[in-house]
């Protein structure tokens, strides 16, 4: 593996992924020291989500990814990795930006867990109303 790489940071919910993209790689994805298949287990959809920007028709080369991801759950982590990979691809080649933007991979997903409010059981669930 060459020493030069392109960096991208991605976020989703409370997960933060730091992605290193090595051009002319073998196509492997390493997440926190494990392969992506081992890290995400039997949930192949999460592996596909994380690698989605690499499978666009405009981006047709093999890259090696090394990812450090912390926080959140596995679904949020996969989304953070996708965001970071897209940002690293744009840093490597700015011509990819329009295709990645059109696919929605460069937009940071703003949805977060809503906070619990006082007097309620959860964010919106109120105690049962009794008339008498």
Outline:
By secondary structure, the chain is α+β, with helices and mostly antiparallel strands. It has 4 helices and 5 strands.
Mind explaining what this structure looks like?
There is one protein chain. The chain is an alpha+beta fold and 132 residues long. The chain has one domain: Ribosomal Protein S5, domain 2. It is 29% helix and 20% strand. Helix 2 packs parallel to helix 3. The longest helix is centred in the middle third of the chain and has 19 residues, at 74-92. Keywords: Ribonucleoprotein, Ribosomal protein. Belongs to the universal ribosomal protein uS9 family.
Q: What is the typical, i.e. mean, pLDDT?
A: 92
Largest sheet: 5 strands, mixed
CATH topology: Ribosomal Protein S5, domain 2
| Count of distinct strands | 5
Strand order of the largest sheet: 1-2-5-3-4
Corresponding CATH architecture = 2-Layer Sandwich
What is the CA-atom radius of gyration, in angstroms? 18 Å
List the main descriptive attributes of the protein structure presented here.
Ribosomal Protein S5, domain 2; 4 helices; single chain; structural constituent of ribosome; 132 residues; alpha+beta
Please outline the helices and strands.
Layout: E1 6-12, E2 15-22, E3 29-31, E4 34-35, H1 36-40, H2 44-50, E5 64-70, H3 74-92, H4 97-103
Helix pairs in contact: 2-3
